[in-house]
Predict the 3D structure of the following.
Amino acid sequence: MSPAPRRNESGQATVELVALLPAVLVILAVALQALLAGQAVWEARVAARAAARAHALGADAAAAARSHLRPRLERGLQVRTSSDGDVRVSVRIPTVVPSVRLGRVSAISHFRPQGGA
């Protein structure tokens, strides 16, 4: 018996890579987007704590929040204060694809207002 003829498989790996590359890129983009959203939540919490401390001492809460955010998050910053010491900081979630809007994340922090001495 003679051996079966072998098919020419040169280039097969290239074809498979080209077929899988879009899926790999989408998975990487989704992972990066999740990382950006998580970082926005984290930074909103840090900014809310700083804003609440500043508000409790009578300083500018928005400036304190802004000083704890990256410039990319500052553009969509919203700071709301209340007389009981609550401060709500809200920022836009940055996106991998600039034309896509994912909404906002917010954080609330509280410091009891300090009496002036």
Notes: The first helix runs from residue 12 to 56. The beta strands are 78-81, 86-92, 104-110.
